[in-house]
UniProtKB/TrEMBL annotation:
CDD domains linked to this entry: HTH_MerR-like
Protein's name in the database: MerR family transcriptional regulator
Highest taxon above the source species: Bacteria
Residue span(s) of domain HTH merR-type: 19-80
A UniProt-annotated Pfam family: DUF3471
Amino acid sequence: MPTTMQGKGETWLEANECAARIGLSKRALRLYEEHGLIRPRRTQKGWRLYGADEIARLHEILALKRLGLSLQRITALLQGKAVDLAGILGIQHDLLADQRKRAEQGLALVRAAQAKLAAGTSLTADELIRLANEANMTETTTDTVAWKRYEQARPRAEIKLDPRRFERCTGFYKHPAGLIMAVTLEDDRFFLQLTGQPKVELFAESDSNFFLKVVPAQLTFAPGEDGGIDTLVLHQGGHDTVATRIDEAEAKRWGNELGERVRNRMPDPRSEATLREVLEQQQRGSIPFALLSEELAELVREQQPIVSAELESKGELQSLGFRRVGEDGVDIYEAQFAGGALQCGIGFGQDGRVHTLWMRPA
């Protein structure tokens, strides 16, 4: 009997051919079936047949394995859920595009360095730093961030939770970016509000796990040694950010301090010099990793080609003019370049690094 069958316009592969063409062993196919990840059809004689749906699922499994996930983690992520081929292809596209971009940037830097050395010219400290950051491609977090984003974007299943079980989660939490996260219970509904942002509703997955519908993000409330909730973990953008519980008095004190900064237009004393350095480095095509939080550094890396091209088109930075403090505590400046202006926002976290950075037309 041939190992490939045609039926109702679709091709079906027996286990031998499916494994050979995809690059797996029959044992691996059986293992994935045992974990409930694939469910091949059976012929009357009991032979397994694999069609487009099963092969799409295998593609998902292999892609997640290459991102470093264990089979147990993949099973927890995919079991009982529909194939999301578009999502996994998007992740693969982004990873491959990022690898190609970084390889091209690294090759260009290496060629430029080789040309300078061949001409008898020494490399500057800035050039050596760029080689260390880009040409060596030492940052390995991109794939981890990618699969976390994929996991965070998966559909979530809401459960009904007794509001009394949520009461232990309510209160105030301090985000590393310096924002206050207020968690409240209102008429049997759960809400989250970050400083300077609108209130959003939370939906329960379990007693301690909740998700948002407005954005692909989740919250986990973690108990301390005494059993009370003392931390909140925000899962968003491929990162897990821990916020620590604070009391209402501290939350009010922080809010009053921010209100005073907003009313009196008082920028952080570090913001102008740091923003200038960030803009000048990005204009040169480098990324100021030492100044940025881990989460922000990853975003800046992804957007670097677009940002560098925009800044390069603007020409030399001529001045930075402070405008105001935003409701979220971000200092807002107008950056005047030889060829135009940009409005920029910069905010610092508790670790002294930049956690918020944005630019838009002035």
